[in-house]
Specification:
3 helices, Aminopeptidase, alpha+beta, 6-stranded mixed beta sheet
Length: 141
């Protein structure tokens, strides 16, 4: 058997991240022939071009998984998050997705997601450091 070296150092971490991301996607593609994951993005900027918030996700098969959504603290509670979700929903429909999924550790965002039509599907209590992991989905018509 070939000798194995188990190590990781900071200079290699980016290459390891790229390797893992690529390898996992390629493995998944082999399981779901005829489908290529597609990255989906949207952002909201001020008239001056300052980024106020953004969202990103990945479309695979008929699902758009929103991996990140963020609005700057100074611009929260102004409807920007809802606009970002609506934009992602529109993109999902254009890509023939029937459902959007996301998760969060932030229990404070529960009312935000439910207000925007998302349903809590799973909750793992005290997932990490006392934070719950909450999964949501929204079926698109």
């Amino acid at each position: 058997m070939e000798e194995l070296i188990l190590e990781s150092n900071l200079s290699e971490n980016m290459a390891i991240e790229e390797y893992l991301s690529h390898s996992v996607i390629q493995y998944g593609l082999a399981q779901h022939k005829n489908d290529t994951p597609e990255k989906v993005f949207c952002s909201c900027k001020s008239k001056q071009g300052v980024l106020l918030g953004a969202a990103m996700g990945t479309k695979t098969l008929n699902v758009l998984f929103i991996s990140h959504i963020f609005v700057e603290d100074s611009h929260r509670s102004k409807g920007i998050g809802s606009v970002l979700l609506a934009s992602m929903e529109q993109k999902a429909k254009e890509l023939a997705c029937s459902v959007i999924r996301l998760n969060t550790f932030n229990h404070l965002s529960h009312s935000f997601y439910t207000k925007n039509g998302y349903n809590e599907t799973t909750r793992i209590d005290s997932y990490m450091n006392g934070f719950d992991l909450i999964y949501y989905d929204k079926h698109l018509c």
